[in-house]
Amino acid sequence: MGPRGILARLHSSLQALSLTTDGSCIYYLSIDEYGSQLTLSPFRSLKRFCWKGPHPQHLVNLHLVLENNAHSLEDLELDLIEFSFYSDYYARLAEDGVDDDNDLMLRFLTGHILEPPDSLFLNLSRLSLSQVEVGPGMINLFNFGVLRSLTLRKCPEWAELIGSIMGAELPLSLKILEIQDCNDAFGFLEFLILRLCLESFEGLGELYLCIHGPLCDVSILEKIAQGQPTLRRFAYCPMDCDKPDLGQDGFLDSMEKQGSLNPFGRLGLEAYGLTCDPRFILVHIRPTRGVMENSYLHPVVVGSSLGRSKDFNADSSVKTTHDDTWASLPFGLRYEFSPLAKWAFGRQGLASLELIVFGDFAHDSRNGWYNFMLCRSSDGPRNFRCLAKESYEWRAVVEEYRSLLESCPRRRASKAGRPDTTGSASRPAGGDLLNWNRKVDFQGPAEQYSTARSHLGIFTNVCVTATLASVIARHPILSAIPIDTVTTARFVRLPIIHLERVVTFVEKPGYTPGQSRDPTLDEFLEKQHNLPFQQDNSLVPFWRINVLTNPEDTSWFTLCLCFHHSLLDTQSAVITHEDLECALSSPQIGPVPDSIEPSQQDLLPSLESMVTLPTTADFVSRQQNIGEPPGYWWSGKQQTLPVRTRFSSVWIAEKCIHNWKGRCREQGVTLTSGLMSLIAVAFSRLLPQEYTTIQGDCAVSLRRFLPADIGQRSAGCYVGSFSEVYSRNTLSLWKDAKRTKNTIDETLRKKGVDMPVAYLKHVPNLIQWLAEKMGKKRWAAWELSNVGGLSPSPDLKLQDGLIQSVMFSQSASASSGAVKVSAASGRDGRLGLGFTWQDGIVDDELVHELIKSVVEMIGEA
Question: pLDDT for 38-51, tens place per residue?
């Protein structure tokens, strides 16, 4: 797409071009610093053009492509995502002298048109503007005698533009009109203009209204019924109505008693969308002639009329999908929609009804976790069935009714607002339909940090490998998946977990776990670390289990639990393994299920909402101005993407680790502080003499500070860290070990004050903050996480399936310690040490020598 790119040089005669800019991309975030190489000036024959989410620096390109193709464009769609960014950018351009007679398109895009120009877009038949500042000055830009489809989504001053169109008495040929309000309240001006608009814009075939507040004046509905006899598709979605009857109170009661009062009964609608409690849908559709659809809270619904589209059960040319996914939907949804579906598709219902569609289909169904479609069925126990997602039928419906489905999004594609989880503003009174919505839990800064690192590919997962465990305990957090990672990161709950998607058995004939080194396990875990969880695009849990077995020796197996760090800390993973161990010892009765409904308990609150993590002004200032370490400070190569994890492990024999722990006790230090100092000494033996200083980070469990009502065996992410600096000139194994122990004691005494995790709440944009670290030197040479050992299990015996040895490892990270050292002890007394590092950041040979040196020093104790 650059000046010398293939498209510009060889395909400048393109007639259709559609662009979508990813606002979370690190290159997008750096455009202000490095500029954009994109050019669109060669394209001068475009008939269809779409650009969603351009960067403000793309305005000039956008200006050129519109100006160069104004007379040829027939279809134009622009979504500026956040119009204030562009207006501010234009203001800066004006200060630089860009504001002259030749920047008409720039002024059009930023709402700065003052004088009506001559008509430019003479042949435009479809115009879709999202978050573009429109106004009266735009009416002469377009030929409204040709324009047949007009979409204004969250466009400031849309009412003034519509009012100007009516006031100018322009010839109109509109067939499709969509308005999404952007104000906090639907005022009298908007109400009046909308009502007049419905009188003036005759001949509409499709009308979609998404506004704030209910249409309390039923006269607007009457105007639609009286003035739009040609209307066939209609959607009405009050964005913040808190009443299950759309705020129409007594009107619906009267309409139920006397169907002739229903204004929609006088329309031949083939598709109807609204947001209200399912039981009120019956009031709307009973007196109508056409097919009506419904949506509850999610502002999306569709349907089709018999003869206008495919009858999925009668047309043999359509490939039907017999896999009914109705049972996989949350119980609340099934409970609320079953009466409606049974009546609508039953003998007393509407013979012409083909579809009931629920969900949020806007922005390519990004927020459509619980979307479903019901159609008539003569097979099975019900008179309806649920279409399989992404099946031929599903895609056909989406394509046929795309405009209606996308007309009323529940949230924006970016900068999604914080949904109300109390039920006060979004759930109908007395309704349990969206029980899952109460399971939408916003992540705390620590969880958002893990999610942001994973989104950027900086940190992918954490693995804990245990021997002899086979089933997963039921913890609520295991049904949570992070979504909206670039806006308002939060958890949603999966209604069902399919075991075949998360559990894999791998046979390794002839394989036997090694006593000190295990190359087979190292290779397997390295592959797992390089399989990231798919952000914002999956109904698969953010954890998985792999079981390594030797078919020739059934006396053991190795189980690997790989999980997303925003779900669990390492102690939680150990607890999960212990629960697996306990479950294994219990007798198994009945067949193994293919799927499991997760625990419906509420997720535990985030760390920051339960533990006070104060920060001092000096600490915040230091963090904000931390810069890069000096040249004598070793920390590997610069932070960079992508991350490919390398992994190697070693087990320290029981006798050696017993002697090492004894030496630590004699010196008055802990195993963790001793390991921190020992790793520093090992690095000092290997690094060139020019490096005199090295920093190690160490994880600290904050579980001891959780409220008393939170069980110590609860699964979640409750971890902090501290940093310790070591100087080659004064380095002493036991002296520095004692200093590190004092640092640990002081960190725990301060209860999280000025801890790095506490600083995260001062970071306004974690994605950008992490992205800006790339290309800079890190501070920490290594990061140690010591998870300790397993809890005693006096009630379990070896034949019950005891966990013998444990290996804990973490993915390499582009934004923390260059080498990650993970320690865990099994019941066999061995200490497992897992070493991970980013390929290309630390030499493999250095890490292997580091491992060798650590093992030797422990053996010398």
Answer: 888 889 999 999 99
Flag whether 800 is in a domain. Answer: yes
In this structure, the answer to whether residues 427 and 461 fall within a common structural domain is no
pLDDT at 638: 93
212-234: per-residue pLDDT in tens? Answer: 654 444 556 666 766 677 888 88
Q: Do 565 and 462 meet the contact criterion of CB atoms below 8 Å apart?
A: yes
Residue whose entry in the numeric block shows the structure tokens 């007394």: 829
SS3 string, 650-675, reads EEECHHHHHHHHHHHHHCCCCHHHHH
Residue type at position 330: P
> Do 461 and 421 reside in the same domain of the chain?
no
Is 252 a residue whose pLDDT tops 80?
A: no
Query: Collapsing DSSP states into helix, strand and coil, what is residue 173?
Result: coil
Which two three-digit tokens encode residue 637?
A: 């190569």
Q: Are residues 425 and 452 in the same domain?
A: no
CA distance 514 to 521: 9
* pLDDT band with cut points at 50, 70 and 90 for residue 655: very high
Please state which of the ranges 12-16, 68-72, 292-296, 697-701 shows the lowest mean pLDDT.
292-296
Q: In Å, what is the CA distance from 848 to each residue of 617, 781, 857?
A: 42, 15, 14
76: β partners: 49, 127
User: Does some domain include residue 463?
Assistant: yes
Give the three-class secondary structure for 302.
Answer: coil
Give the predicted TM-score (pTM) of the model: 0.50
Task: Lowest mean pLDDT of 139-148, 321-330, 797-806, name the range.
Answer: 321-330
Q: Own/partner pairs for 103-106, CB < 8 Å, 24+ apart?
A: 103/63, 104/67, 105/62, 105/63, 105/64, 105/66, 105/67, 106/59, 106/60, 106/63
What is the C-alpha separation between 213 and 247, in angstroms, rounded?
8
- Number of domains composing the chain: 4
Compute the distance between CA of residue 237 and CA of residue 20 in angstroms, rounded to an integer: 26
Q: What backbone torsions phi and psi does residue 531 show, to the nearest 5 degrees?
A: -115, 85
| pLDDT tens digits along 166-218 | 777 777 888 999 988 875 545 555 666 676 677 667 788 898 887 765 444 45
Instruction: Give φ, ψ of 759 to 5 degrees.
Output: -70, -20
How far is it, in rounded angstroms, from Cα 209 to Cα 196?
14
Residues 1 and 61 in one domain: yes
744 is a domain residue: yes
- Confidence check: pLDDT of 292 > 60: no
Query: Contact, 242 vs 214, CB < 8 A?
Result: no
Answer yes or no: do 590 and 686 share one domain: no
Same domain, 309 and 452: no
| Contact call for residues 604 and 477 (beta carbons, < 8 A) | yes
Q: What's the CA gap between 758 and 490, in Å, rounded?
A: 19
Q: What is the 3-state secondary structure (H, E, C) of 544-594?
A: EEEEEEECCEEEEEEEEEEECCCCCCHHHHHHHHHHHHHHHHCCCCCCCCC
Confidence category of residue 647, pLDDT binned at 50, 70, 90: very high
Boundaries of domain holding 11: 1-174
Tell me, rounded to whole angstroms, the distance of Cα 810 from its chain centroid.
Answer: 22
Are residue 228 and residue 92 in the same domain, yes or no? no
Beta bridge partners of 696: 724, 782
The answer, yes or no, to whether residue 60 has pLDDT greater than 60, is yes
Contacts of 569 (CB under 8 A, 6+ apart): 701, 716, 717, 718, 719
Among the candidates 439, 472, 494, a domain finishes at 439
* pLDDT band per the 50, 70, 90 thresholds, residue 840: very high
Q: Strand 782-786 vs strand 645-652: parallel, antiparallel, or unpaired? A: unpaired
182 within domain boundaries: no
Whether 813 contacts 453, CB under 8 Å: yes
CA 297 to CA 239: how far, in whole Å? Answer: 9
Partners of 306 in beta bridges: 309
